[in-house]
Structure formats: structure tokens, C-alpha cells
Amino acid sequence: MASKATTRSSPTLSGIATTPSQTGVSHDALLAFERGSSAPSRWWWVRTISPLVWVCLAIIAGFIVCGVLADVIAPYDPTQNDLRARLQPPAFADGGSTAHLLGTDQLGRDLLSRLIHGARVSLAIGVLGMLCGAAFGVMCGLVSGFARGVVDEALMFLVDAWVALPFIIIALSVVAMLGSSLSVLILLATLSGWATYTRVSRGLALAAREQQYILAARAVGARPGRLLVRHILPNIIAPLIVLATLELTAIIMLEASLSFLGFGIQPPTPAWGYMVSEGREYLHTAWWVGVFPGVAIMLVTAAVSLAGDWLRDVLDPTLRS
Amino acid sequence: MLRFVLGRALRGIITVWIVVTTVFVVLRLSGDPASAMLGPDAPPEAIDAFRARHDLDRSIPVQYVTYIGNALRGDFGVSLADRRPATEHFRRRIGATLELGVVAVAIAVLVGIPAGVLAALRRNSIWDRLAMGMAFIGQSAPNFFIGIMLILVLSLQFNLFPSSGRGSWQQLVMPAFTLATGLLAALARMSRSALLEVVRQDFVRTARAKGLGERRVLLGHTLRNAAIPIVTLFGLSTGTLIGGAAITETVFAWPGVGRLTVNAVSSRDFPIIQLIVIVIAASVVTINLLIDIAYGLLDPRIRATGRGGA
Predict the structure, then answer these.
(1) Most buried residue, A256, B128, B129, B272, by most Cβ within 10 Å?
(2) Which residue pairs, CB below 8 angstroms and at least 24 apart, start in A150-156?
(3) What angle do CA B255, B256, B257 make, to 5 degrees?
């Protein structure tokens, strides 16, 4: 029960508070940790942030701010053509001006504004897809691991068949039949990770259901639904959060790739992948049109995956050496 | 071992069948290819004729049975765009994709594994940092962006390689490298960590203690035992490679199956999409089967118990 109480008092530390019981940290240490007396302060994890991780967190924060506040921050309307200012170089290059910090594209649209608005598409699809995928996948995994038997066999067979196909091919088939729109892209983002979540959470649920506290909860008469949601889920959430960061990079990459192929959010709404493919036509005269959005995709995926590594180390004390 | 292989093969066949069925049903339910191909203003007679020609006027179960029957005989229908057999389109393109894929895997293996081994042997040296830094960039940059940067630098700036098309070996270099990056980076990271893991094991110390030279220790004992996670990685990367081919071929105008797929999706050319999905599912299943067999060959323990999964 100790682990449950901790989970409730400080949700951000649930992973740390619960895993010691599995890794052999003594009960006294756990209690001390809970009281916050001799244990490290609740901000101990701040010290684990290396300079590189700070940079990554800053990039992620910038990405989120751009996505949420695009209308406020962007200096220009991202779809506003200005044919007299076509293919203006960025401010730091020869012939650039501070009017367009990152230059303009083939229709004279401000590249910086388009990048900022493009973040919105990536962020929306990434976060929604990640949450929906996690919810759906974890549900399947918990049911599979908890029910076992035929349900488990069937779900696992489906997962195996699903991962036998490269997801981009599934995505292209779905686009062929439904066309591409924001909702289709979110559907695809949801589908892209569900099998992984299912596999991982099934494994975790299988391990967790053998634990003593489940037996205890069952002994006091908890029903399966309550067992899953109140007891098993909080105790396996830490690895799932780490998995979610991995999935987020995969989804951002998927969205960018589809958009590059012309199957993403349709123009003129700016999306990074499509901006790269537009820029391909102008590589010899105006490299910035294609390069800046590509750099943006790379920075965000790299930042999220490095931050995910850090999060894994913080949430999983067994990996800390 | 034989029973294990047969069991896996059967599972694989069922997987392919599920994939075929799902794709067929979902694609047919989703919309009318006749109006997609002929345009919204097409006269009704033309649409009817189109449907009759492609068997679209019959019920879905009938279409399905016909389709499976034909597929087993190697007939996957005709392209909705030019009425030539889907298999013919596929056959004309597959050579280019295989060429690209084989060269890409070769590059990834020949560069990635030595880089990872070097990084592990000179742990924390400048080479280690450099190799792992490059590997990280290789894994976080999308394929199409790597391709575009290569075009920008090697084609436009230094004029070393042509930026598109197929024919000469120079045209193969950049697309193959672009396609290779993901696998290359993963192989480098994986072989580094696998080697570091194995080097600590007792049998490596034993090998050293009985006086073997470093080279024998590395080649005969360490690498052989580091091979299993590397082989696993191959299985997991097949899908990524196939997906990467669609993008790489688009960037470099490489006339392969990847571009065929993208074009077929744009024009909703269902027979071609179905054929491609089936072939990909079949190849991924086959590759995974081969990898399961490779486990058995690499690890006598698996062979002995006849069970997979390392």
C-alpha cells in the first residue's frame, strides 16, 4: 500500500516511488523517501539534467510554445504571398534583410512564420497521436496481459501481423482510401504505435499481476477493472512514459515523411515535411527554403529522443549506476 | 528445429493471408475507384463499363474469392490507370529497388559494424564520440532531409554525383547512402553496445588467459557472440528499409517500387497497392523466418531446445 500512497501524493514521482519495491530498496528507505526527511529533496532530479538535456528541454519548450502560440509569435501570416519578395535569402546571408529573418519561399511567404505555424501541425498530430495511441495500446495490452487465454492469443497474433508490415505502407494504404486530412493523420499517428504499447504494457501487466499487492487488493475484493486502473496501471506507468517519448519522435517523423510525399496536411497550411519537398525545387537558387524546415524536424526529433533517454534514467532507478 | 521452422512458416502464411484480406476489404469498402480514375464528370456509361471491366460491379465476397483465386495463380489484376497487369508494373520496377536495397544494406554493414566495433574498442576516445554522434544524427534526421542535404552539398556544391535518375554507378551512390543511414546508425550503436556487453563476459577473459591474440579473441569469441542482437536488428530494420525506399526513391527520382507505391497511392490504383502490400508482407515474413533460423545457427542453445527468441 505504501507505493500507492506515494503515487497519490506526488504524481510526477510515481515511477521512482513505486519501482523501489520491485528493485529491493528496503521498506524503511521507501518510508523515509516518502516523508522527505533523510531522503533526497523532491527536486533531486533537476541535478540529473546535463547541459545537453537542458538544451533539448529548451528546444522542446520552444517547439510547444511555437505550436500553441503560433498566431501570436509569427511575424507574418504564413499563407500571405508577396511575389515581389520571392526567395529572399535569410538575414545572415548575402542580400538578406531583417524583414524576413529566415528569408522567404518561392511565393514570397515568410519562412520563419511558416516554420512557427508548421510546428502547430507537428505538435497537434504528435501529441494527440501519442495520447490516443497510448490509451488504445495500453488498454489492449492490459486486457491481454490480464485476461490471458484466447483473448491474449488473438490480440498477440494481431500485433504480430500488424508489425509484419512496415507502417509507412499501412499509412499509404490508409491515405489511398481515406484521402489525407487532419483526422486521418491523427488516426494514423494513433495506429503507428499501438502495437508497441500493447506488447510492452502486456509484458508489464503480466509481471505486475504476480506481485503481492495485487494479491492483497484481490483479497479485499477489488474487481478486475479496479485492479487494472488503480493498482496495475500506476505501477507500470514509468516505462510507458518513456515509450511514449519514443513514439512521439516516430510520429513526428511519420507526419513529416507523409507530408514530404504530399500526403500530409494539404497546402497552403504549412507543414514541415511538405516545406522540405517544396524547397527541393529551389535547392540550387534558394537552399534555405528546404533546409530550415528539415533542420527543424531534426532538432525536434533529436531533442525529444535525448530528453526521453534522460527521462528513462530518472524514472528507472535500476538503470542508474 | 524443423518443427520450429514449420510452425513459424505456417504462422507467417496466416499473417500474409490476414494482411491480404484486410487490405482487400478495407480498400474496396472505402470508395469508388471508378469515379476516382475517370473524374467526377465522367458519363454513367463510361463508369459502368469501367466497373464491368474491373469486376467492380459484383458483390465484395465474390470479388474477394475471385481475387484470392487469381492471386494464387499469380494474377493480381490490372492497373486501373493503363490496364496493364499489376505484376508487369511491379516486375519492371523491382530490379531498381533490389539494387538500391542490396547496396544500401552492404554500405550499412560495411560501415556501421566496423564503426561500432571501433567505437567499442576505443571506448570514450574521440573516435567513439564521433561515431556515436554521427549515429545519433543519422537516426534523428528524416531520410528525405539527408537526401536533400546530400544533393545540396555533393551535387550542387561540389558536382560529384548526379542528383537523380538511374543508370550509372554515380547515380546509385547518394540514394544508396541515404537509404542506408538509418540501418547504418542503428548497426553502429548496436554493435558497440553488444560488444561492450560481451567483452565483460568470463569466456572472453578465459580466451585471453589461455594466451590468444587480441585478433583471435575479437573475431573468434567476441564478435561471434555479439552477433545475435545484431541479427535481431536486421529483422526489425527490414520494415524501416522498405518504408525508407518509398521516400528515398522519391527524393532521387529512382524508378523503383517505392515510387510506384507513391504514384499508385496518389491515383488510388488499388490493384497495384494490393500487390505491393502483399509482396512486402510476404518478404518481411520470410526475412523474419530466415532470422529465426539464423538464431539457431548462431546460438547452439536455441538449436538444442528448438525454441526461438533470444
Answers:
(1) A256
(2) A152/A202, A155/A198, A155/A202, A156/A202
(3) 140
- Cβ-based contacts of B273 with chain A (< 8 Å): 172-173, 176
Q: How far apart are CA B86 and CA B74, in angstroms?
A: 10
Judge whether A304 and A242 are in contact, CB under 8 Å.
no
How far away is chain B from the Cα of A161, in angstroms, using its nearest Cα? 5
For the entire predicted model, the pTM comes to: 0.80
d(CA A42, CA B51): 68
ipTM of the complex: 0.80
Q: Are A315 and A240 a contacting pair, CB within 8 Å?
A: no
Rounding to the nearest 10 degrees, give the CA dihedral for residues B93, B95, B100, B101: 100
Unique residue bearing C-alpha cell 554522434: B133
Q: Which of A161, A260, A284 sits opposite B156 (nearest CB)?
A: A284
Q: Cβ neighbours of residue B133 under 8 Å, at least 6 residues apart?
A: none
CB A105 within 8 A of CB A111: yes
- Long-range CB contacts for residues B55-58, cutoff 8 Å, separation at least 24: B56/B32
* pLDDT one-digit tens code per residue, A95-146: 777 777 788 888 878 888 899 998 988 999 999 999 999 999 988 988 888 7
Tell me how far CA of residue B122 lies from CA of B119, B197, B213, B221, in angstroms: 5, 14, 17, 18
- Contact between A70 and A116 under an 8 Å Cβ cutoff? The reply is yes
State the Cα angle at A310 between A250 and A137, rounded to 5°: 40
| Dihedral of the alpha carbons of A235, A237, A238, A243, in degrees to the nearest 10 | 150
- Please tell me the distance from the alpha carbon of residue A54 to that of residue A63, in angstroms, as a whole number: 14
Q: Which residues pair with B85 in a beta bridge?
A: B78
The pLDDT tens digits of the residues spanning B17-53 come to 887 887 777 666 655 666 666 666 777 777 777 777 6
Distance CA A215, CA A157 (A): 29
Whole-angstrom distance, CA of residue A118 vs CA of residue A270: 5
Per DSSP, the three-state class of A104 is strand
**Long-range contacts for A83-89 (Cβ within 8 Å, ≥24 apart)?**
A83/A107, A83/A108, A84/A108, A87/A282, A87/A285, A87/A286, A87/A289, A89/A286, A89/A288
Q: Cα–Cα distance between A134 and A127 in angstroms, integer?
A: 10
* Side chain identity at residue A192, one-letter code: S
Q: How far, in Å, CA of B190 to CA of B117, rounded?
A: 10
A290 at interface of B, judged by CB pairs closer than 8 A: yes
Residue A181: other Cβ atoms inside 10 A? 13
- The residue whose grid cell reads 504524481 is A11
Instruction: Compute the distance between CA of residue B144 and CA of residue B146 in angstroms, rounded to an integer.
Output: 6
Pairwise CB contact (< 8 Å): A173 & B273: yes
The parts of chain A modelled with pLDDT lower than 70 are 1-41, 164, 316-321
| B151·A166 Cβ contact <8 A | no
Contact predicate B15/B50, CB 8 Å: no
- Beta bridge partners of residue A104, listed in sequence order: A110
How large is the C-alpha radius of gyration of chain B? Answer: 24
